UniProtKB/TrEMBL annotation:
InterPro entries membership: 6-blade_b-propeller_TolB-like (IPR011042), SGL (IPR013658), SMP-30 (IPR005511)
Protein species of origin: Azospirillum endophyticum
Protein name: SMP-30/gluconolactonase/LRE family protein
Domain SMP-30/Gluconolactonase/LRE-like region: 17-260
Signal peptide stretch: none
Pfam families: SGL (PF08450)
Entry-linked SUPFAM superfamilies: Calcium-dependent phosphotriesterase
Family: Belongs to the SMP-30/CGR1 family.
Length: 297
């Protein structure tokens, strides 16, 4: 394992719970959300400008939609948003209700289906699930979860990675891009809970060499894992709670990471005043473009 280059702040956003970065190749812009700030954001790296679009409820994840607008995971369910981030149509209600559950991390699959999971807010019952949404509707892929997170695909689209953050575990599944079915789940890696300072696996992305980049919540770093689950390198982030990574830039060699500030202790925010910001670093191995959500998939 090597200590790699560090992230620097590209947007001092002071988000409550920054999450869900996704790069739009068409627009050369980064969309990201502030879950607790109830906003969809568009960051333009060419100008450094960020535009925040307010939402009526928490938004956990988002993806550009083929034909315009977005698909997004809100507390109440999966929604189609228009180009201004306004909810237009509820595509699927949150099957767990809204009392103690909301949509969290999501990602499109190679065919343009949308995978998204929920968060069990009391973090006691393992009531969260991972879902797949396509033209057939919503289907359960996995259950018994606390915080569904860390979705990413291998370069050939045949392996799905998925984290359950509070259990410190990332699993991998065989994925059938033709049907969106998963099988043969196994532990990809599990971090040591007793080593609390090193964080828990949150949002993720895979690079062109098939390595898995994981934002380590409460670990103050992003780590890169080989396709066999070995830790390759660690990259400090000047915020204690990195939440999700995404590759962007013209050559997909900029790795962005969102961070959280909500609920963090005052001394931590004093020491790390850019918590809640958007950070980036240049990487040697590029990422892979994430396809838009395709309503026909
Ligand atoms: O995915 C996220 O960033 C969640 O929305 C966060 O709240 C965070 O991942 C989560 O709280 C971590 S954990 O469930 O407490 O371990």
């Amino acid at each position: 394992m090597t200590a790699g280059p560090a992230f620097t702040c590209v947007l001092d956003a002071r988000a409550k719970l920054g999450e869900g970065p996704v790069w739009s190749v068409d627009e050369q812009a980064l969309y990201w959300v502030d879950i607790k700030g109830r906003a969809l954001n568009r960051f333009d790296p060419a100008t450094g400008a960020n535009r925040a679009m307010a939402l009526p409820e928490e938004i956990g994840c988002v993806a550009p939609r083929k034909g315009g607008g977005f698909i997004a995971g809100l507390r109440s369910g999966l929604w189609q948003l228009d180009g201004e981030g306004r909810p237009v149509t509820c595509l699927a209600a949150n099957p767990e209700g809204q009392g103690a559950s909301r949509f969290n991390d999501g990602k499109t699959d190679p065919a343009g289906r949308y995978l998204a999971g929920t968060l069990d807010e009391p973090k006691a019952g393992g009531k969260a699930h991972l879902y797949r949404y396509d033209r057939h509707g919503l289907a359960v892929l996995a259950g018994g979860l606390l915080t569904s997170n860390g979705l990413a695909f291998s370069p050939d689209g045949r392996t799905l990675y998925h984290a359950d953050t509070p259990t410190f575990t990332v699993r991998r599944y065989r994925y059938d891009p033709a049907t969106g079915a998963i099988s043969d789940g196994e532990v990809f890696f599990r971090l040591e809970p007793k080593d609390g300072d090193r964080g828990r696996p949150d949002g993720a992305a895979v690079d062109a060499q098939g390595c898995y980049w994981s934002a380590l919540y409460e670990g103050g770093r992003v780590a890169r894992f080989s396709p066999d689950g070995g830790l390759l390198s660690e990259h400090p982030v000047p915020a204690r709670c990195p939440t999700m990574v995404a590759f962007g830039g013209p050559d997909l060699r900029t790795l962005y990471v969102t961070t959280a500030s909500a609920g963090r202790p005052a001394d931590e925010l004093e020491r790390l005043p850019q918590s809640g910001g958007l950070f980036a670093m240049t990487v040697e191995v590029p990422g892979l473009p994430v396809p838009p959500f395709d309503p026909a998939a």
